Every structure is written in C-alpha cells, then in structure tokens.
Amino acid sequence: MNTLAVFLIAVVAVATAAPSAILVDEDPEPVATVTTCGGLVNTSSAAINFQLGESIPAGQVCLWTVQAPYDAIRFTLKESGLGMGDSLKLTRFIGAVPGYQYNVTEVGANYTYSAGTVLVTLVTGASASSGFSLEMYSSGDLDAGGGGFTHYETFQAATGATAYPGNGQPYMDDEVAVFIVSPSESGSRTLTFTGMDVEDSTGCIYDSVEVFSWSVSMDHLHSEARVCGSALPPPIMLETGLGVIIFKTDSSVTQGGFAFNWM
Length: 263
Ligand SMILES: *[C@@H]1O[C@H](CO)[C@@H](O)[C@H](O)[C@H]1NC(C)=O
Ligand SMILES: *[C@@H]1O[C@H](CO)[C@@H](O)[C@H](O)[C@H]1NC(C)=O
Ligand SMILES: *[C@@H]1O[C@H](CO)[C@@H](O)[C@H](O)[C@H]1NC(C)=O
Prior knowledge:
Elements: H1 3-16, E1 33-34, E2 39-41, E3 45-56, E4 61-66, E5 70-80, E6 87-92, E7 101-103, E8 110-113, E9 118-123, E10 129-142, E11 151-155, E12 160-164, E13 176-181, E14 189-197, E15 208-215, E16 220-227, E17 236-238, E18 243-248, E19 257-262
Parallel strand pairs: 1-3, 2-4, 11-13
Antiparallel strand pairs: 3-10, 4-9, 5-8, 5-10, 6-7, 6-9, 12-19, 13-18, 14-17, 14-19, 15-16, 15-18
This protein binds 2-acetamido-2-deoxy-beta-D-glucopyranose (3 copies).
C-alpha cells in the first residue's frame, strides 16, 4: 500500500467515526422550582427561590445538593436580597469531595462547572436579610462525575439522631453515603457519635466517616474529623449548625456502621 492510500484510509476512518454522544441543550426555563431550605435537586434545570422578597433570620443555614444529568452546569443569580454578611456559595462535590468554590455575589453573572455534583450553601450573617433566586441549567454530555451516592439524607430538625445502615445489616462495599445536618432553627450544634463499627485502618484509608462543618471565618466546609474503628470520637462542634457527614467504604470488609446525634 502506498502512503497516499494509507492517508486516504485514515481520513475515511476519521470521517466515519461515530459521534461520541448527542449533546443536549439547556432547558429554556427551569423545569423545577425549589423553595425549601435545602434538599436534593436532581433535575436538568431548577430555580432555587428561597425566601424571595421575604426576610431570612440571622444565622440561617441551608444546603442544596445539585445533581444534574449533564456535565456543563451553569448557575446564575437572578435576584438577591442578600447582604454583606451573608454567604451564598457553590462547592464542587464530585465523588463527595468538597472542591472548587464560588462566591455567588453578582446578579446576572454565570458560575460554571464542567461536572457535577455541586453543593449550594447559604449561611446568613448577623443582620437579617431577604432571599434570592438562583437558577441552574445543565447541558452537554451525560455527566460521569456526578451523583453515585448510595444514600443521601437531609436532617432539618433542631436536634436528632440517626444510625447507618440502621437496619441491623452491615453496610455495603463501595458506599458513598451523604448526610446533611442543617437545622432550620439557627445556632451551633454538637455532633456526638454514639456508635462506631467501621473497618479500622491507620488514617482510615479503607472505610471512613468524615465530618465537615461550615467554618464562618474560613467561609467553607472544613473537615473536623475523619474516623473509623470502634472507639467513639470526641464530640464535634458544628459552628453554624451545618454539618456534612460523608461515609465512604472500599471494595472489601463491611461492618456494623455508625450512629450519631446532634443537639
Ligand atoms: C437522581 O436521578 C437519577 C435519575 O432519575 C437517579 O438515577 C439517581 O439515583 C438520583 N439521585 C439520587 C441521589 O437520588
Ligand atoms: C469569597 O468570600 C470570602 C469571604 O466571604 C473571601 O475570603 C474570598 O476571598 C472570596 N473569594 C472570591 C473569589 O471572591
Ligand atoms: C451566561 O450564559 C448564558 C447561556 O450560555 C448566556 O446567554 C449569557 O450571555 C451569559 N451571561 C454572561 C453575563 O456571561
């Protein structure tokens, strides 16, 4: 075969290669409207309209977990009554690892990520303010980086307790379970583990429970403890009341799980 023939075959091969996927456009308008303080937003687009035009008490915390189906994710602030002391943040959360963060301050600006999942957090400051409308649109290719949680739960009660799995069975291999403690009544809380039976290892590299709290001074989720084994860790302070508890397991050895309360 001469070089020209090889060249032509190569050109034909490239020209007839199937497109990798069909790219999806953004929805023209948000397909869902969320007005609650926090929760799971699992749609192609959504408007988070929280206390729009109404007051929000000081020290309010809310956390929305946005899990869009496509890998180009755009947030835009449509309206805002938030003030200087208030914090509205986006945090990349691929594989349940808190990552790149945006301060959402500018109405009309676009804040974009090239994969999900994304956490939206609101922590209001000392003076009362009013709410906001934040829209989210996803587009592009199917998102391989988002979601994949084996369990997801939000707790808004002022005090409470939970156990995982809590059904008398051991937990599973390859878990990524996410628990959000965001009491609707503002104020700090103490999170206390009341049961621990998680595969032990130095540095908890196999199975782990990690507790993040929202640090006002750092203005982001801060890892307070990463625990495993069977010893009960010391109580953990949740400065604003907001806690993100992430349970991850590897591909072998499963045990009884864990339990904690907050008050
Ligand atoms: C989000 O929706 C998709 C599709 O309906 C589903 O497969 C996935 O489990 C949902 N995620 C959660 C955390 O519920
Ligand atoms: C975001 O806000 C925090 C404090 O609220 C500030 O320290 C940080 O510099 C801000 N980041 C950007 C990119 O504006
Ligand atoms: C934000 O993104 C949308 C959609 O791509 C675009 O129409 C709009 O012009 C962008 N706005 C800014 C301020 O970049």
